[in-house]
Protein 1
Amino acid sequence: MDTLIFLFSDYTFQTVALGSALLGLISGVLGCFAVLRKQSLLGDGISHSALPGVVMAFILLGVKNTEGLLLGAIVSGLLATILMISIVRYTRIKFDSALALVMSVFFGLGLALLTYVQKIPNSNQAGLSRFIFGQASTLLQRDIIVMAVCGVVLLALVVLFWKEFMVFTFDSDFAQTLGFSSQKLNLLLSFMIVVAIIIGLQTVGVILMSAMLITPAVAARQWTNRLGVMVTLSAFFGALSGVAGTAASSLVPKLPTGPSIVVCVSGIVLISILFAPGRGILYRANRRRKNRLLFRMEGGSPDVPTI
Amino acid sequence: MIDMTTKYAVEVEDLTVAYDTKPVLWDIDLKFPKGKLTAIVGPNGAGKSTLIKAIVGLLKPVSGSIRINGETQDLRSLKTRIGYVPQSSSVDWDFPATVESVVLMGCYGKLGWVRRPRKEDYALTRQALKKVGMDDYADRHISQLSGGQQQRVFLARALAQEAEIYFMDEPFKGVDAQTEKAIVQLLKELRDQGKTVIVVHHDLQTVADCRWWPADRSAKFLMMKI
């Protein structure tokens, strides 16, 4: 207990935990829409596609600070997203194939550029490889402010366009006939997901980022049948695992932060899938067993009207 | 308000719609009379749904013009006038939403961007649910509905739109005889209120008691007045 109190009063820990909590909250909210639109892998695609942007920003602009590198990440993440959407719209290639195609090309390019950059002197301090697996300990107060500002803007957009996002996610054709352009909503939502992913790159890295987007949403879906509750729960799960993961990595020596956050959120999803009332595996198994017993004892009649 | 200056609710001229290079509809000329209940009947693949989607603006036609209430089709001005009921199989019924929240979506068009539903929208939603006999189900999750109930929820959503012209894509699909009767009754009520109702249907037998006329020489489907 004392170690925990000591930990939570530590400045570095506070910074990293706050950053991770913010990241979990934001990706938890936006992940819900990605999951419900059956675009769970979109996050994976975008985050992998951000890598060449990071390296290009370093090569072309010579920047080393996080903001500059993330700007590069946003540009290439967006480019990849637009490319994916266009491939689906103008060819007969389906979304999953378009995603895999764009993602592997961009990530491959990113790795190639990274190898090239590492041969240039002075590049070691740039610490570009931290974007692959993430390095939460490099989070500075400046980075937290950037994350907080982005987070506030993204959450405000979700609140503002709540009804539009809901009807678009449920029935995009119907939304279109109501005058809500699905093209615009699709772009807006994709753009917001890109921003959410980019601000998480420094903490968890391109490879694990998609877990932050999908896992809290999947866990939250098990507990509720209402979109509002799902989004709130998902945000909570994300933030909770951010803090818990940071704490775990501070207490156990050499345990990296990003992966331990992902392990925490995976624990939550596992518990949810097993135990959630209504949808949980154990809950359903138990109900089936009870029903079988009930039918056997009372010889239950099926609830079908006879004509 | 329904203005009586034009006799036809929907006028389609020279309409050609294609998926990729293959035209599905070719040079279609059609007129849907105002304040009538009309069915579009034809076999699978005849282009019935395509026609409806082109009229409500979901598909971009290759050529031709569509006039609604005598005005050229423009989504922005149309959104409060048309009510579209898609096939119920077109959405994921495991979406986290209650019956009430789905029907409430019918009010979103009138509200426009960003504005939230008001008290009267909730009242309208209740009323629409009552009309389709689903008011006891308002707080149910949509995954607990049967096929016929899903169809009723979609109908209620369209009723909440308070549109002038309704387009319904296969509202009788997967529905039992009793529900079908209830739906037909509802559609007739809409017609009696002066609304135009256009229904896509694939079964000739259930609409046997009506006059029919060929839609167009190049069309593979029929139109009938019920």
Note: Residues 2-296 of chain A form a domain with the ABC transporter involved in vitamin B12 uptake, BtuC fold (CATH 1.10.3470.10).
Protein 2
Amino acid sequence: MVEKNQRVSRGIIENQNMPRSWRKETKPHRFCPGCGHGIALKALGDVVDELGILDQVLYGCDIGCSLLSWDFFNFDSIQTHHGRTIPVIVGAKRARPEIVGIAYMGDGGGYAIGAQHLVNAATRGDRITAIVANNTLYAMTGGQMAPTTLPRQKTSTTPYGRDPLITGSPTLGPELVAAIASEGSYVARGTVGDYNKLKLFIKKALLNQMEGKGFSFVEVLSTCPTNWRTGAKETWGFLQGKMENYFKVGELQVSQGNRLGEEG
Amino acid sequence: MITESGGVKMAKETLAGEYQEILNNEKEMFMTGNEVVAWAALAAEADFMYGYPITPQNEIMYYWAKLAPAFGRGFLQTEDEISAGFTMLGGALVGKKTFSATAGPGNILMQESISMAEMMRLPGVWIIQQRGGPSTATVIYSQQEFRLTTTGGNGEGMRLVYSTSSHQELFESTIKAFNNAWKYRFPTFVLGDGYQAKMREPVVLFNPKLRNWEIIAAEPIAMKSGVPYLERDPVHLRNTFNIEEELYDILSGHLADFRRMKQEVVEWDEGGSEKADLLVVAHGIVGRAAISAVKTVNNQGLRVKYFRPITVRPFPGEALRKIVSEEPELKILVAESAYGQLLSVVKEELYGLANTIESYLKPGLGITAEEIEEILVRLGKKEG
């Protein structure tokens, strides 16, 4: 008992602002100063605490900055290849439906290299929760263009700004998922600029999975001052100005055409 | 929610008993190789198949999709082979025996997940029904996926690969593959081909437990019981490392495990004349043709042996080297339906020995017993 209590006391994080499901031993975390991942993962940690599902969560993270969260929490996790987090979590969930499967990735993993997995998990109505952090570029590899890079935004592979005539327009992930996901799916876009709303969306996404209703998807508008090369003020300005202007925050209605259980 | 369909209910009520009886009574069946694989997976207590259609493995999915629901086991047709491989690993992670089947370009797409499995020691069984290559090529027959299956991926090829030559061996090796995949936790393969997949021949199906074969159970790697952190340590798996030395240490451990596994799993088949002038080395159904050819020429008085590796990775190199090193005059013939993929392994294993190595290489084409016979007669003729 003593040993167990010691472990419990070791697990309690003194700072009341930190979720209990956060792993104290791996804090401070490895993300850059000003990075939005910390806020997104705080919302996730708070929700796991509130739902009391520490022992039910299987958390998958991708390649790219999201992989830095591989030992971020006190629940079980697996870090996969770029874009492959959704299939790993789908496979686990199919094999053991009682698990609460969370696939966490960036916009490259969600909308480019792993787009086929997002599209098909959504249409199949896989009972998992996918969370995609959208920071408008590939951060870990050096700030290249992502599917979500805004028109005229400069990145290391669009040094003169993204030209939509050459590389198209930013991918609207939640809008895409809402158009194709099976009935019962949950789709929302939150932002690290509105913590309470983001937390609510993540909570609803996890509950939707736990109630067995369908695929659950949350895009999180996030910040990357390192690759944006911005100070604190400009970082927040880009997020709440340009990004939130282009990517509308809120819940999305799943298309009514995608009914389950209907004969073809 | 979608409820269980009438078909699945019927399968559980009626088919399950029928299928179990076939296994328990060791019934001799006349079936295709793909059907044999599905039965072997059932007998090995596989839980879940994740697959994507590609010829010539498709019927494995058809039969499994029919057999599995009767036993409460699962099947998911994924969006591609990349997904099939990674969903498999997700299932294995949480303690289920998972497998997939593929061929050719699908085998290439599977390599990504196989590399991750190799690094993270996630178990799984892959059935490879080889087809011609490169690229789309043909769908009937080939041995050109030998190299890809044994050493593909960005790593060291820490894999266990069975190459089978008959339906009986296909059934038994598939059961062994499941056992050894979960025992040693290296990616495990059954390397078949289009002929074996589609051909029908007699096979005795059996329940391995009734023959006292141990069936290794799958254990959860993550999501074990207990509240993580409070009752047990959380499981945090990764395949990314910050420094080369950290990776090197982990790989060194894996390589040591792989060398240990080799001693316990290598299998081969050898036979023919006791003293020989010639040794044929071939795997899979070319190995079967070679054995048939050796028997014929032995009856004609030619002194010929055969060596057929059953595990082509790890390769039974010591056994081969022992045969060859005992007879300095022994000439070797390597026959394969590929352009030197087995040959290069044989050369590596026999490095330093002075024996002559001949080869008969027909990439993507079948090799008959008669063809091998003809070469053996030509090579086996005494000089002068």
Note: The longest helix of chain B spans residues 244-265.
